[in-house]
Predict the structure.
Amino acid sequence: MFGLGGRSRSQTFPVQKSEAEWRRMLSPAAFQVLRHEGTERPFTSPLNNEHRAGVFSCAACAQPLYSSKDKFESGTGWPSFTRPISRQAVGVRADVSLLMVRTEVHCARCGGHLGHVFPDGPPPTGQRYCMNGVALRFTPGRA
């Protein structure tokens, strides 16, 4: 049901929908990333160039995930953040799908795959939450 990232089929999240429901409500690209742990091509998301104040939320369930205050230009081709809005907003787990261990990041509310976190970000956290733009929605306003 969930692709190669190692997500447990038995893990449950507060927001539950069938595959058909997710497919109807998400774009094909968002469905592939959020529900099947795909990755969008680098430098294709308009959110890379989003520099206004605001909040980046899960494209599947609208949970606020990242503040524009924590967004930075990583040069990787994906929107990157130093931290989530709160520790409760996202979950992490080991991803061994590319024959290496990475840390996958998912929405704690719906389980949607967002991207990965790496220990090579700038201060103050040293973390780089490298997110698929198609998995996010931006709402301008206070960050």
Summary: Helices lie at 19-25, 28-36.
